[in-house]
Amino acid sequence: MSHATISQSISIVHPISLSHGKNAEVWDTTGKRYIDFVGGIGVLNLGHCHPGVVEAIREQATKLTHYAFNAAPHAPYLELMERISAFIPVGYPVSGMLTNSGAEAAENALKIVRGATGRTVVIAFDGAFHGRTLATLNLNGKVAPYKQKVGVLPGPVYHLPYPSADNGVTCAEALKAMDRLFSVEIDVSDVACFIIEPVQGEGGFLALDIEFAQALRRFCDTNNIPLIADEIQSGFGRTGQRFAFSRLGIEPDLILLGKSIAGGVPLGAVVGRKPLLDNLPKGGLGGTYSGNPIACAGALATLDAMTDAHLKTWGSQQEEAITRRYHAWRTQGLCAYLGRMTGVGAMRGIELVNADGTPASKQLTQLLELARDAGLLLMPSGKSRHIIRLLAPLTIEPAVLEEGLDILEACLRQLA
After folding, report:
1. Which candidate among 71, 183, 209, 350 keeps its CA 20 to 30 Å from the CA of 25?
2. Domain locations in the chain?
3. Which residue(s) pair with 169 in the sheet?
4. Helices marked H in 62-169
5. Within the chain, how many helices (H) and strands (E) appear?
6. pLDDT at 229 over 90
7. Global pTM?
């Protein structure tokens, strides 16, 4: 099928055309089968066409396909916000709003903190990814390709090093950079918020340093600065628990949701402390499609499936399989380019590096093609696109997961 009518500014990782999918498998229009370790870039934690999600969507489509909540409330939105509020593992009353996407959740979070604080400065982190809309572009900790040719971006935004055992940046180094920022660049009293991913997605599946997260929470409390956790990719069970911020021992003030929230149907949310969410005037938040009834139905079915027991089992099974195979590959000396494994739980990356430690971006490009030809879809990440991003559905059958890892092993062995 021709791509002539599609903008050439859209970059496509895999030049195939998909037809259908089931759990962790997809088929293209030629009938070729692939094991899916991309999962719609983290959208399909419950896999393709999860029966409960499909049935909920089908049933809702016979009742009400759409109504703008700010025109007249509808039951799926109301029920979903009640369920999400109970699902968020914090000790304070949760309020929120539904959005069309994670990026829109981030945009609304910026409005919320501006209204609550009367300030405009945002502190984000190197390697961050928070969306492709104009304001979220400036939050991203990477220029190419997102910020190129679009001119001056909404701000002001400042970036700090992201401390993680996965990238070698220590808590002390990040705190020193933060001290310099507020000594040299900006008055802390002008800061509207910090925004951070508990595990970076696009940045290479880097897990945030726990000591730094707790120091940042204390700093925000001392200076009355809202802390926003972007759980768009790391949330809804990706790390083996509901949300990745729980492993850090902190509670964010606002939490951004998206991707796997609704089993593949476009939906996002910004939730958090009720005084923050309620500070803007009536009509300051909303949206025509935000909280569409069909999307809400998909999200309700998703929450039904995501019990703590299921998340723990799915996460530990996938983590065990990936880490076991990775360490075996390292022991065997399988591939000269095999670097570190990043991330936590079932949110894992595998780094490809040259002998001198520099990113092996060329080899990752080769690996994507080799794996695709062999029936496995992979996704790159990292500043230099040198980290394999593993996002198989949490519900993947163990035999299919091992088959996918077998293909990955064979393809790593072929790298030159």
Report:
1. 350
2. 18-50+308-415, 52-306
3. 164
4. 75-87, 102-117, 134-139
5. 12, 15
6. yes
7. 0.95
